[in-house]
Amino acid sequence: MRTTARLVTSAAALALVLTACSGGSEDSGGGDGGSGDQTIKVAYQKTDAFFQLDELLVKSKAEFEEANPGWTVQLEPIAAQETDYFTKLALMNGSPDTAPDVIYEDTFQVRPDAAAGFLAPMDDYLAEWEDWAQFPEGIRAAGLGDDGSTYGVSMGTDTRGVYYNKEIFAQAGLPEDWQPETWDDLLEAARTVKAEVPDVIPMNVYASKAQGEGTSMQGFEMLLYGTDDTLYDADAGKWIVGSQGFEDTLTFLQTLQDEELMPGLEDALDTNLPNRVSTELLPEGRLAIAVDGSWMPGGWMSGDNAWPEWEETMGMTAMPTQNGQEPGATSMSGGWLLSIGANADDPEMAFNFIANTLNEENSFKFATENSQIAARDDVAANPDYVSFNPSFEFFSSLVPVTNFRPATPDYAQISNNIQVAAESVITGQATPEQAAETYDQAITRVVGDENVSEAS
Amino acid sequence: MATLALPGRDHRDPGRSPGSRRVVQSLLRTSPLIPAVVLLLLFLAGPIVYSLYGSLTNASLTGPKAAQPDFVGFDNYAQLIDNPQFWKSLVLTLVFVIASALIGQNLLGMALALLMKAAHGPMRAVVSTIVVVSWVLPEIVAAFALYAFFASDGTLNIMLGWFGVEGSAWLIVLPMLAVILANVWRGTAFSMMVYSAALNDVPPEITEAAQIDGASGWQRFSRITVPMIRRSISTNLMLTTLQTLGVFTLIWVMTGGGPGVESSTLPVLAYQEAFKFSQVGYGTAIATVTLVLGGLFAIVYIKALKPEVD
Amino acid sequence: MTAMTPEAPDVLAATDGRPTATREARQRRNGALASPRQRNSKVAASLILVVIGVAFVIPLGWIVLAAFDSAATVSVKLPTSVTLNNFTEIMNWETTFRPLWNSLIISMGTAIITVLCSVLAAYPLSRYQMRWRKPFMYTVLFGTCLPITAMMVPVYALFVAFGLLDNLGGTVLFLAATALPMAIWMTKNFMDSIPVALEEAAWVDGASAMTALWRIVVPLMRPGIAVVFIFVFTQAWGNFFVPFVLLFSETSQPAAVAIFGFFGTYGTISYGRLAAFSILYSVPVLALYLLVQRLSGSSFAMAGAVKG
């Protein structure tokens, strides 16, 4: 009879016990009152093309644990491409138990994540952090939430431009010092490459959902912000629908696709394309022109995919505007930050870890190794920084013409619809006109009728 | 739980003890069901209830709606009905289920089972093992293998090249065909095994007698064998249908639901809307539709088959 | 013919409630009847089988060839140089053994809980007449049909509410619950085939129902339980979507999720390593499949003996 009871109860209780046990051991904070074993959990992205942050955090972890006995920094690298990284991060943030204490955040995620209650305001800690003075106003703004509090410290910023392979250009009879002034110049060069060096992909512009924000920023917006239109009217607080620029941008993508000037669809729809551009397609001389970000040389200077010849091989030029209109060139800037999770057991210690990670020495390390436009004035002014990488000068020169993404909580959803529009055009599922119309309807649904306005 | 420690002696004597004892007794007898029922309620009924409820909110993965979702009634469903992408996805789901499960897996599975009966022993063992291995493999491994098969530099195109046929980027040009064939590849073993077992249960005397009476092979199959294994056929149709309705990994790895939404079945669309585009409420509504679809299939099956539950 | 009697036919045979007893005898008879015409059709059938077999083996071939190729690509080809490097490079705790260990914990946990719960549940369902038994079994059958593992969106939301995210135990319980309807169904059918007479003898000796279950019924249906166990284990081992959405930290990820990271993170560089990992990940379930073939043989034997 006892067997009966034991078996029944134990099987029923097994469920609860299992839950309880593992619940405890997986607990992220670990700060259960005892001062002996406190943990800071850090969530960030790591891939074979983006290893510099991992190296930085490993270094900072050692320093921090040395300086704060009893504290452990638990690094949680998320090995995923950018879109999957965002998904994973959002899933982790969904529950206080699994939310990280320190989060590597893209600028455009700060506002929505702050509004969602995932991030903790840092104002009190920043006020006492003497290094904060090194961060200029424009850089600080990247961490602002809708409520005016600061939710992140910038790790650096970036610009975007046009890379081209000089060796391929020489074969195609194109100038070594190439300076396209309009979109047509870009297309002409691509056509020439296609005709003269047929084995090479003439040009890459990201244009599918698979590359996520890369498609919006390195691809679509680099084009759109060179037209007379824009995405968002910041003064009126309205999203713009029915703009000619939007349609023209899609038409440009369609031209690339129709004339086979861009990677085949299988590559264009590959999540891994950004990695492959930097680790394979450019180094192996299989791609002539790439619209991409300023961080790319970071992966060529060291690491598994080091490519010392890049300095002689790659040329860089500014992204032209559509018809050469003022200011003659355009660029987009974003950047990433370190933020404190709203559920951090000890936000102050989490901040201290961030402060250590972004002190002058570590910021210098990250800015040089990952080809960042330095966030801190002291790093930017350091002669060793300027001379570290020959591309810095060029990409810094784009700052005067650069643009920022609309800083609104709903940008992420707008961006998704941009990607849908771009992909539907390059896959031939919609004409630029249809895709633009779908976009207009979709964003109106997202933000509401009152928050959109017709382009003038 | 304490009462469970006292299973009365009469416990072992079903149906004879009178009055209130009978209630206690039936409770005691029921008690071994408790762990299973608890698990089913929490983790099977739980998601279903949550799915119905969540689909009525505008919950989001990030932004203000993540902190404070509103109850929006049937807005998500209204949006779905308005959205041509949803209807396309629904059609793709039905195409996927009908083509790969009802037609592909079942017919090929039956053909294999019949061939197995007729073929040489060693051949039978080797081929059946190969077919079953593709079924036993973890689904993600199977998905990679088929991705590599259909990719434009992949095996299929290389083989076509031997015959002078120029290949294509199958995953882009014909994504649905690729995932349908992939699901046939992966799932046929199950049907084959079910039908092999069923065919073995058909007494050979009957078909032999029919043969002596001059019935052709096809007649013997369609008039005698099929009616005799009818139950196995319908059970199998149902299990493969529902298995296929839930396929996510295979499609996600091979095509990501693309290009565009050309191969986004409902599970893929739900994932995309909820976890990529942050619209959890909307994605949950799609999941609910998938659930209802599964439920409809199940009801049709149970009604048609009237499985004996005793 | 042993290769043709893996788990599913047993399951279904059991579902139909009529286990096959005299199969082997029939096969022997079939084999003896071979006229010349039948021999021709036998050759034709074998040829068609070869063609289908080749079609099935080609996608598998890529995994094997790529795993031993020092320069594997997405294309199937004979290795330019045969190497074990793809294996040796991934033979470490973080890349391979920890994910496999996690898969083992998840699959074992799921299979143990599922089997325990379904044996317990099957007993009253199989042995007692109860008014609500029929509706209960129909509900279970209905549950078998629902594509729960495909609707991870509400499951994720539910796990947020339960506070069970990134929790191996929670994932195990969910997988167990989704496997339960099928497992209860199978276990009950196996149990139905065990005569009550044996237990009644035990009852006379004063044993309780539970004692009878564990001392008499369970030992008799051990092969059936093993089939259920392996069935559930294999499903949990191969599941990707559930741990992909519910588990986050690298330290608790099973092989199914770890392999996806391979593909997404290292680009085209490491098809060889991906294939090598795939093999290491697949071998355990392939081995279990061989095991189940042997077990199902004996389960038929048992069914036959009982039916007398």
Written overview of the protein:
The complex is a heterotrimer of chains A (456), B (310) and C (308). By secondary structure, chain A is of the alpha/beta class. Chain A has 21 helices and 15 strands. Chain A folds into two domains: 38-158 and 334-403, D-Maltodextrin-Binding Protein, domain 2 (3-Layer(aba) Sandwich), CATH 3.40.190.10; 160-333 and 404-454, Periplasmic binding protein-like II (D-Maltodextrin-Binding Protein, domain 2, 3-Layer(aba) Sandwich). In chain A, helix 2 (52-67) links the parallel strand 1 (38-45) and strand 2. In chain A, helix 9 packs across helix 20 (411-426) and helix 10 packs across helix 21. By secondary structure, chain B is mainly α. The longest helix of chain B is centred in the first third of the chain and has 35 residues, at 84-118. In chain B, helix 10 runs antiparallel to helix 13. Chain C is built from 14 helices and no strands. Chain C has helices at 7-15, 23-32, 36-67, 85-90, 93-127, 133-145, 152-162, 168-192, 196-204, 209-220, 222-238, 241-246, 255-265, 271-307. Chains in contact: A-B, A-C, B-C. The interface between B and C is large, with 115 and 118 residues.
